[in-house]
């Protein structure tokens, strides 16, 4: 059966935007419920693989409510999160303000740094906050070539009209020697495990979506979009075609999730 939120071609972005506008208020809760909290661990794995040094620049594409951006910032990176959904960005921004208030309270007690840094080319020397959340399209990033030390995307590439265009943009804005990281739903090789997991995505996840966020269709979209998305080794193969080196993939939970990384050659 066709999914109301999945279309191909020029309308894709609009429908995906509608989807995230619908589910944004319950997005974080639903992530915890549908993954039994495991998405937090998978995102921590991505952040660990990013292996950022303090002061390095990171871009988190399709940042949503900001989990990965906050994780990278906690490692000392100067982080920009980019997303095209105002609804998702406003939640990320609310989280950042809350964290900033907590930091302010600690500073008042005299035990924290200022946390104010210049992150984007536009912000130049002016003080901005970390992470910085900006509106933008993953397929046409508004950053110069070779700008970031690390570029990440979690559960975003699958939603683009052209995931290849998204990956090319990530490769364009990362510095030579810098690293790309892609985390998304995967396709387990083991047929039985894949069958069980796809059944959960087809039945369990939409029921949870209906119960807790009022939309079964928005969550049935996950399986529909995954059907049109390559398995994790397909992402890794495209990274190699783009000229990335040291490409590797990690299968999480038997391939239910795929984490792929590659380095832009010097
Ligand atoms: C499933 S969420 C992932 C959010 C976050 N990275 C996480 O892991 O929780 C996908 C995000 O991609 C964003 N998105 C989809 N297509 C986009 C595009 N073309 N440009 C920018 N953001 C996009 C959506 O607005 C949404 O916030």
Radius of gyration: 18 Å
Shape descriptor: globular
Q: What is the number of E strands?
A: 9
Enumerate the strands of the largest sheet in spatial order, edge to edge or round the barrel. 5-2-1-6-7-9-8
Q: Report, as a whole number of angstroms, the end-to-end distance.
A: 47 Å
What does this structure look like?
The chain is α/β, with parallel strands linked by helices and 266 residues long. The protein has a single domain, classed as Vaccinia Virus protein VP39 (Rossmann fold). Helices cover 45% and strands 21% of the residues. It contains 9 helices and 9 strands. The strands form 2 sheets. The chain has a 7-stranded mixed sheet, with helices on both faces. It has a two-stranded antiparallel sheet with strand order 3-4. Helix 3 (38-50) crosses helix 4 and helix 7 (191-213) runs antiparallel to helix 8. 41% of the residues are buried. The model is unreliable at 112-116 and 123-127 (pLDDT under 50). The protein binds S-adenosylmethionine. Residues 13, 16, 20, 62-64, 67-68, 83-85, 88, 137-139, 154-156, 159-160 line the site of S-adenosylmethionine (SAM).
In short:
The protein is α/β, with parallel strands linked by helices and about 270 residues long.
Structure characteristics:
266 residues, alpha/beta, Rossmann fold, seven-stranded mixed sheet, two-stranded antiparallel ribbon, 9 strands, binds S-adenosylmethionine
């Amino acid at each position: 059966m066709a999914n109301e939120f999945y279309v191909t071609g020029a309308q894709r972005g609009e429908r995906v935007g509608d989807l995230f506008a619908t589910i944004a208020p319950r997005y974080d809760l639903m992530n915890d419920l549908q993954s039994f909290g495991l998405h937090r661990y998978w995102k921590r794995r991505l952040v660990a693989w990013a292996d950022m040094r303090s002061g390095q620049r990171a871009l988190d594409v399709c940042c949503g409510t900001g989990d990965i951006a906050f994780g990278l910032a906690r490692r000392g990176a100067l982080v920009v999160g980019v997303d095209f959904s105002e609804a998702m960005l406003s939640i990320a921004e609310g989280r950042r303000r809350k964290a900033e208030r907590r930091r302010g309270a600690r500073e008042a007690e005299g035990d924290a740094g200022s946390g104010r840094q210049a992150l984007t080319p536009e912000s130049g020397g002016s003080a901005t906050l970390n992470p910085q959340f900006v509106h933008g399209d993953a397929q046409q990033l508004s950053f110069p070539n070779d700008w970031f030390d690390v570029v990440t995307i979690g559960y975003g590439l699958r939603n683009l009209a052209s995931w290849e265009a998204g990956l090319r943009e990530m490769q364009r804005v990362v510095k030579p020697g810098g690293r790309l990281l892609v985390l998304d739903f995967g396709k387990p090789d083991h047929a039985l495990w894949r069958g069980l997991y796809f059944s959960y995505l087809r039945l369990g996840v939409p029921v949870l979506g209906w119960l807790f966020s009022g939309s079964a269709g928005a969550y049935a979209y996950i399986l529909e979009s995954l059907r049109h998305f390559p398995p994790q080794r397909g992402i890794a193969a495209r990274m190699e075609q783009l000229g990335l080196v040291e490409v590797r993939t990690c299968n999480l939970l038997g391939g239910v999730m795929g984490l792929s990384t590659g380095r832009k050659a010097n």
